[in-house]
Amino acid sequence: MLWNQIKNKEMPEHIGIILDGNRRWAYDHSLFPWDGHLFGAEKVEELLKWCLELRIKAITLYVFSTENFQRPAGEINEIFSITKDKLKKLLSDRSIHEKKVHIKAIGRINLLPSDLKEVILEAEKTTKEYDEHYLNIAIAYGGRAEIVDATIRIAEEVKDGKITPDQIDEKTIESHLYTSHMPKFDPDLIIRTSGEERLSGFLLWQGAYSELSFLDVYWPDFRKIDLWRAIRTYQGRSRRYGK
Asked: pTM for the full model?
């Protein structure tokens, strides 16, 4: 019944997801925190298939924030190791190439360990010509940091005489954000799991007019029906953009 409600209505073109609740899920199951991250990473594989089935063009996943570097070193290393392994697996996934999925890591990638950076570069290089779908992995990411980095690059261009201050507008800033490679950088819908109701620095510029859906389910327990429900909520809203 839910599928019949959403299938013939407009689907969001770009969905952002804050993958929250991995650690709490692990604690509830008497597991180590990294077990939650592993189950969460496996759920991402399912999510990608669901979104491709729905012909959703772009997904941006909030995997690891700049603030997450404050977590215990052992947990951080496990998250990076899991991310590296899953990226390698993605590159061998036939659907990534059949569906022309452009993979991009967004964030302060220079802060990541060298072995993870190598796999990221391989994934980006292999899929850089694909333009049917986009998978952004926000890792070592912060929305404020993104705006700071964009500002620095713009300031350097002003200093070099490439542009003048009065030429700076919203399009200038958008062209210097981490998401500038996308035809549609702003998400139509942002989903956060775990019951928390805040963005935690996720796509602060891009999400200015995004519809928000907060779900009371930890990320490893996220189901296809939860995605469909979030889409139904999106379809039921009127997007006026301040008009």
From this structure: 0.95
